[in-house]
Amino acid sequence: MGGVAVAVLQPLTLCRPRGWSPRPASSGKSRSCIRVRARPVRAALVEAKPTPALRVRDGGGDDGGDRSVKVQLYRGGGADRTDDIQAEVRALARAANASVYSPELLVVKYGSSPVKVIRRTLKIVTALGSFGLKLFIDQRKGVIDQNKRRRAVELRRIFTRLGPTFVKLGQGLSTRPDVCPPEYLEELSELQDALPTFPDAEAFACIERELGVPLDSIYSSISSSPIAAASLGQVYKAELRYSGQVVAVKVQRPGIEEAIGLDFYLIRGLGFFINKYVDVVTTDVVALIDEFARRVYQELNYVQEGQNARRFKKLYADKKDVLVPDIFWDYTSGKVLTMEWVNGVKLNEQEAIERQGLKVLDLVNTGIQCSLRQLLEYGYFHADPHPGNLLATPEGKLAFLDFGMMSETPEEARFAIIGHVVHMVNRDYEAMANDYYALDFLSPDVDVSPIVPALRNFFDDALNSTVSELNFKTLVDGLGAVLYQYPFNVPAYYALILRSLTVLEGLALYADPNFKVLAASYPYFAKRLLTDPNPYLRDALIELLFKDGKFRWSRLESLLVQGSKDRDFSAKDALQPVLKLLLDPDGEELRTLVIKEAVRVNEAFILGTAIDTYNFIPDFMKGLIVNGNATGPLAMSIAEQESMIALRDQVIRIWGLLRTSENFDPAMLQPILQVLQQPEARNLGERVIGGITQRLAARLLQQVLRVPPTVPASTL
User: Fold this and answer.
1) Which residue, 300, 471, 608, 609, has most beta carbons within 10 Å?
2) Active-site residue, 290 included
3) What is the pLDDT of residue 517?
4) What does pTM read for this prediction?
């Protein structure tokens, strides 16, 4: 839910709503805004501790006296951490009865309520049946493709009318390019959690019931109406009585468990029908429904959401430009979540962001880098990153909100995705197709050979631009069309992260029509390829740098240029893993390639220096040296000489990139020199020296005999 924090510029009144009170109202005039009275401290809510503490003076007691309260604040110290854990345990105890998805319990509950089931069934069948009839008519008339956009809009409106379960279902379908055509993906992605608010009195009663204390003992003030409403709950802005901390209070919608439970009971019955009678659908529909239902039920447990937020904060808020609000466990339960209030502007409100002196593109880049870390480093990521859940703070930080729906990327898939990008850059479509096994897109018994031509047809056209110039949405749409035509089963983690990056690129395009998310992502991929010691990524790097037995220096230079744009790039991290791989007992094939390239580079330095020296001597002396050779002092063509000099200059540039990287220190070469003292390294050096000697001897023989300038490859 994106409404935990909205634009800071929005006016807000902190007060109690008219006519609401947890106790009988006192006599006197009715007031639209009442200051909440102080109540005695409840030990279950706040605990008095010696230190550190914040002393709050309160003169609003019934006796009119001066009362002081000590409120423990979590600062990250040992004792504070213990208190925080204890508070979390108490919150877990309050959420002990939180609902968990159980198909068996749904059958028991609703199997004995036929009237309720029939009434809801008629409403759903009427809405979706009319939509299905329109699709059938479109197909009979041959206009189904022309009407895709129109029908997609209608389906989005139907899901909104049918309520929370179908809003969530539509949002889930919007991330599945293997299930829905592109037009439906776009429309369903616009589904907003904007449902009518429920009465404030019910919300406040829920807070008191869940936390076990009167509302006025928790908050000194609370907004008179919700700041935002969503499918599962609504959010208020409040001020904690005993610390003055401004917080967002998320309260669950009454009866939501009943509503979604009945809907999933019916949808699951439909899944059984599809599995049994619809042969076209090969996926286990009931299993998909159960997985989706489990995720939605997890969102109903706000303590779980608080734990998700804490885990996300620990993993990703170490970067100074990322903000994750903290959780107040003593004011949190299964149906009430109290978290730090974030002042900020939604990421899609460009003008408001710029008025604060911030740049949308800087924030989007922060979001992209954080999304890549979520997907490819730790594998734990935010599964609902729409613009309402991303805020720009006045300090220029990107704040993440709403941690009800999270997902994880399997470790194997994290490395396979980076390898997939390498295969795309190399236009190795057979390898790309085989990647889909590791990514769990295809079962092992599926033949990928028919998929290769489809990938080639799409990517050959898309890659006419460099990878960094590709529009990510175009790439995702094109790939989605391929996935839709073949028996792919796109895992939830992959579909969700594609949606995340597509959303970020869409936000950036408002500020810069030429923005490309792949260009912003490439430095991260380059850094990981150059520095990560994982064997899979080492192989991917070799595959990227070597082709047909030759080293592609331009690729290495490009990787270093892009990798150096990542603030965490280190030349030390880039050098040592490669050397270890080179000296690995199983690295003989790579060593042979490297020896050949080392010989070629040394030859380029020696002969390039000779050519430069020749170019600096006086012309009358050149005539004596060349002895009638029109191409200069060496028996080489002009093109070969230029190639030698270009290679030498490129290697010098690459060394310059390493030296200018952040934290470069010549002392970091000491461990590398130690590695080179190993027997394998000494043997490698001897082979390089032997190769250089052989090449120079061949050059000398050419020079003496003046044979045509071709040098046989070294037989190493």
Assistant:
1) 300
2) no
3) 74
4) 0.69
